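Example noted here:
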Amino acid sequence: MMFWIASVAGLAIAYLLGSTPTGYLAGKLLRGIDIREHGSRSTGATNVLRTLGKWPALVVLLIDVLKGAGAIVFADWYYPRLTTWPSVVPPAGVDLQIWLPWAVGLAGLAALLGHGRSVWLNFSGGKSAATGLGVLLALSWPMALGAAAIFAATLAIFRIVSLGSMFAALTAIALICGLEQPLPYRLLVIAGGIYVIARHRANIQRLLAGTEPRLGQSAIADAAVKRQS
């Protein structure tokens, strides 16, 4: 029983890492505002850029990436050490070599869920794209670079952050299916990519309607969001 309790505790820690409300805290600390009441109402770096400016957005972006990477690094450190604790004995039939990648994969998903549905923000949050990039970096940096390159190319051509984020998520899914990775990691990236795209539902509606703002169009962004509200 203690083995499973400790395993769930590890997932809870990964979730709490992901749920740290970086963008919300930036709004409160820098301007005393709730960023969820401005722009796209997201706590992600894009809305921070639109609402607070370039440097706060860069800091939020870096921290959000580190949240995802940190959850994977923590899981890689934490779960192999469970069996060294005297009070934690794996149940009979549990193959630790098979179980470890599943635990790490679930920790990555927990971090994504924490960013998008933060317990500190009444289960609201950002789109989980930056945190997802951090997860990818910790799992496989070539895959992360590939997804980041597609994001950068899409942003350079269309100047629409949401489109770049969704293309990056699709790229990560395609790459993980072509790379030699454990099945749990493949399922993590597939599920995480789908989750990131699903978090962009409102952006997809605006893209189809032709009202999705381009990078730097803060006034238009606010107007578009209000029309969609």
